[in-house]
Amino acid sequence: MKVSDILRVKGNTLYTVTPDEPLANAVDIMADRDIGSLVVMELGDLVGMLTFREVIQAIVKNGGSVGTLQVRSAMDDHPLTCTLETDMDEVRRMMLDRHARYMPVMDKRMLMGVISFYDVAKAVVDSQNFENKMLKAYIRDWPEEERGG
Questions:
Q1: 3-class DSSP state for residue 46?
Q2: How confident is the model at residue 136, as a pLDDT?
Q3: In which region does residue 113 sit, left (phi positive, over 0), alpha (psi from -120 to 50) or beta (all else)?
Q4: Residues facing residue 83 across a β-bridge
Q5: Are strands 37-42 and 16-17 parallel, antiparallel or unpaired?
Q6: Which of 29, 31, 51, 94 registers the highest number of CB atoms within 10 A of its CB?
Q7: Rounded CA separation 13/7 (Å)
Q8: Using one digit for the tens of pLDDT, what is the confidence trace for 39-85?
């Protein structure tokens, strides 16, 4: 299974902000949309990721409020990325190694979507459920003479 399979099911709705926007606006978008991450874009390029982890760290560093902070001051400016062709096992390893909960999906320099650790886990469970169903159907349809008896 590849990343493209997850995006096909999930869709590729993207929520973005610019690095110079107030962090308070980004927090409002995340709360209103009930999302855990925003892609930070500048002049058509991916320049960072803002997740609830970075927001919380920025609030703590700023004495408990977002104040006048900009997205740039809180975002991860070196986000982990993958491609549409990246294999799911590789994505899981990458996300676990970096403790990343969200990963932008790129096709060269074009942002194609964002997958979350939840999306990856759901894809794995769905795949295992399908495989289990197929194996059970195969066993049920096993010819009598080949069962040994």
A1: strand
A2: 76
A3: left
A4: 106
A5: parallel
A6: 51
A7: 10
A8: 999 999 999 999 999 999 999 999 999 999 999 999 999 999 999 99
Q: What is the C-alpha separation between 77 and 102, in angstroms, rounded?
A: 14
Residues 6+ apart with CB under 8 A from 42: 18, 19
Q: Tokens 């995006």 appear where?
A: 7
Write out the two tokens for 59: 């609030």
pLDDT tier at 11, thresholds 50, 70, 90: confident
Structural domains of the chain sorted by starting position, each given as residue range(s) with its CATH number in brackets: 3-120 (3.10.580.10)
Cβ atoms of 45 and 109 within 8 Å: the answer is: yes
- pLDDT for res 129: 66
d(CA 88, CA 91): 5
> Which stretches does DSSP call E strand in the chain?
16-17, 37-42, 45-51, 82-83, 102-107, 110-116
What are the residues whose beta carbons fall under 8 Å from the beta carbon of 71, sequence distance 6 or more? 17, 18, 19, 20, 21, 22, 23, 26, 38, 40, 48, 50
To the question of pTM greater than 0.90 for the whole model, the response is no
